[in-house]
Amino acid sequence: MSEVTEREAVAGTASAGSDSEVLATLRRVFGYEDFRGEQEAVIEHVVAGGDAVVLMPTGGGKSLCYQIPALVRPGTGVVVSPLIALMQDQVDALRALGVRAGFVNSTQDFDERRTVEAEFLAGELDVLYLAPERLRLDTTLDLLSRGKISVFAIDEAHCVAQWGHDFRPDYLALSVLGQRWPDVPRIALTATATHATHQEITQRLGMPDAKHFVASFDRPNIQYRIVPKADPKKQLLAFLKQEHEGDAGIVYCLSRKSVEATAEFLCRNGIDAVPYHAGLDAGTRSAHQARFLREDGLVVCATIAFGMGIDKPDVRFVAHLDLPKSVEGYYQETGRAGRDGLASTAWMAYGLQDVVQQRKLINSGEGDGAFRRRAASHLDAMLALCETAQCRRAQLLTYFGQEPQAANCGNCDTCLTPPETWDGTVVAQKLLSTVVRLKRERGQKFGAGQIIDILLGRRTAKVIQFDHDQLSVFGIGEELSEAEWRGVARQLLAQGLMAVEGEYGTLVLTDESAAVLGRQREVRLRKEAPKPAVARAARGERKAKTVAAELPPELVPVFEALRAWRGAQAKENGVPAYVIFHDATLREIALQRPTSIAQLGTVGGVGEKKLATWGEGVLAVLAELDGADAGADPRADAHAGSGAGADSGPDAGAGAGASGPDLWAGGEAEPEPEPEEIDW
Ligand SMILES: Nc1ncnc2c1ncn2[C@@H]1O[C@H](COP(=O)(O)OP(=O)(O)OP(=O)(O)O)[C@@H](O)[C@H]1O
Ligand SMILES: [Mg+2]
Ligand SMILES: [Zn+2]
After folding, report:
1. CB neighbours (10 Å) of residue 137?
2. Judging by beta carbons within 10 Å of its beta carbon (0-12, 13-18, 19+), is residue 464 exposed, middle or buried?
3. Which reaction does this enzyme catalyse, per its entry (predicted)?
4. Considering only the top CATH level, what class is 222-419+671-677?
């Protein structure tokens, strides 16, 4: 544990022996057997005094990369994090492991802060969490210079990137750390993987000599699925009832209004759900976040304002009811599922209205041309992911500049149920010529709803009103259903063969349209599944809905007994259940059935401190079960509400207004989100 200066480390003379100490710390304190991926290399580098920039996916295990150096090197590890609302939980979790942790932020009163500062100065803290705004204060810098610092960790380092959604001006001041403490190693960590962000972090934090560690961004336990949107809330309900009853999860919606509506809808249908968005007052927000962390099986319906840095290990699903604005956003959000490495689902419903709405938001939004172009290219990449007929995981990894392990991952919807593609050239021509005729013959532009009515030969009030039944294209598209036409329109928009314009999202041609109309270009389309078939296929493959169900039936009561015991301990100690043990740990205990403290200590996630605190309690639960009849039938889990069919046939649209609202497919006319309600 000798002190090594940064220069020595860079020259490659890091002390031998730190290696085994690092591994020993992982096992003793955290109770994990092995490092994941790049963790060990990062930790060794930092322990030896080097600077590091670390890119790892959400839930990849970045925290250990600074926590272990903080434990191994002399002094206190100072962690800069913007997630003030989570600091208490992070500190609680570390203390449960026997790590001496504390935090300083604006939520504390003077006395609390003084206590932590005194502990720091006395060398009694292994880890100190700090909000970035505190580092602008001279008092904080003075305090830090009076103590001994082992490492500076800059978590969520993408907050320094000025173009990013999470930009925090206070992060810009962090370059001072390298100037004031040149001998203290710095480690910057983020899950945002784009090249531009990566460069900006390195430059703005002033870390030109840092070693860069880029982990694999694959999250193999997450199953990616994107289904055509018909009636999103009902589809979501069916997905939850069929596959995730009783599981904790996050449902992302774009607008605050739909967050509220979705949470209400789920509650009405027997699913415990709460809303979370920036429009709620701080008290409600933190109460809902605390419930999510502490309770089992709560669903949070949220805008993107929710989730960053939340280390809840057993989030079993992340659902999107609206299209995210970028692949980066999608990947960070879906990455919040399955941090414990157990099977989890990333599910999204996506439809024509999403494309129209996002394009509209970009066209009518603020920002200069460059800003809009960037937003449009982010959206294009997201649409390409939605419309691909290839493996979604392979496409995601390629997007992040990584080589997928295989062309087919076997754990995404396109791998599980390969979609058929078909030659859509003729139908594309029919749709585009309708747009052309309206423009040329009538000087009109309409949204997709009216154009589809014309193609289907429907004499709706609006068709009669505009004499559209007199057009030569009237009724030329009767070979497809309305839902199929919507799929065609959506895919043409996604492929840039057609565009939307203006407040009402009217359809217009693009430069590319001409090649289709002129028969110089074939249009391949993904076949629309009449029903979300994938949900069914996947249900067959993995009946397992919960961790308990993944166990042999005779072990389920053991797992449930351990969970009940854990729940009681959590309540008594006022901490989330997973701070005591993760589900994955309880599952392994049920499988291994240890009968001694020594045996229990070999289970993953049972470190020294936890063994000392909870070991006897766990063994007592197991001993009691041994006395009782352990062969009782696991509770029959009846599937409720299987009748909630996912595809309610689209109603004949209530053709209100000019040509806006009729774009919506489902029976329920979903209100358009108002831009100011969207949490960017
Ligand atoms: N070597 C390991 N073995 C087993 N579990 C691990 C290991 N490393 C980390 N974990 C677990 O993985 C989970 C995610 O870790 P962590 O919170 O560090 O993720 P993160 O990379 O910071 O993600 P985010 O970007 O969301 O902040 C935690 O529950 C942690 O206990
Ligand atoms: Mg983290
Ligand atoms: Zn795949």
Report:
1. 10
2. exposed
3. Couples ATP hydrolysis with the unwinding of duplex DNA by translocating in the 3'-5' direction
4. alpha beta
Query: Atom 4 (ligand 1): residue with closest C-alpha?
Result: 32
Ligand closest in space to the Cα of 155: 2
Q: Give the pLDDT of residue 42.
A: 97
Evaluate whether 16-214 and 222-419+671-677 have a shared fold.
Answer: yes
Q: In angstroms, what CA-CA distances link 306 with 464, 545, 637?
A: 47, 24, 31
Q: What number does the ligand 1 atom closest to the CA of 32 have?
A: 3
Whole-number pLDDT of residue 659: 32
Superfamily of domain 552-646: HRDC domain (1.10.150.80)
Atom 3 of ligand 1: nearest residue by CA position: 32
Asked if residue 216 lies in contact with residue 402, where contact means CB atoms within 8 angstroms, the answer is yes
Instruction: Give residue 136's pLDDT.
Output: 85
Rounded alpha-carbon distances, angstroms, from residue 567 to 62, 145, 191, 232, 562 = 27, 42, 31, 34, 9
Shortest-distance ligand to the CA of residue 224: 3
191 alpha carbon – ligand 2 mean position (Å): 8
Pocket test for ligand 1, best of 28, 34, 53, 63 (most atoms within 8 A of CB): 63
When the candidates are 3.40.50.300, 3.40.50.2000, 1.10.10.10, 1.25.40.10, the CATH number that belongs to 422-526 is: 1.10.10.10
C-alpha 159 to ligand 2 mean position (Å):
13
What mean pLDDT, rounded, does the chain reach? Answer: 84
What are the residue ranges spanned by the domains of the chain? 16-214, 222-419+671-677, 422-526, 552-646
Closest residue CA from atom 23 of ligand 1: 59
Please give the distance, rounded to the nearest whole angstrom, from the Cα atom of residue 475 to the centre of ligand 3: 39
Q: How many angstroms separate the CA atoms of 373 and 381, rounded?
A: 12
4 CA from centroid of ligand 2 (Å): 27
Strand partners, 152: 78, 186
pTM, two decimal places: 0.78
Ligand 1 atom nearest to CA at 34: 1
Alpha helix (H) ranges present in 312-351?
327-334
Cα 347 → chain centroid: 11
Q: Which residues line ligand 1 (CB under 6 A)?
A: 32, 35-36, 39, 56, 58-64, 191, 309, 311, 313, 339
Q: Does the 16-214 domain belong in CATH 3.40.309.10?
A: no
Alpha-carbon distances, residue 604 vs 29, 32, 585, 600 (angstroms): 11, 5, 6, 9
Closest by alpha carbon to 411, among 397, 428, 394?
394
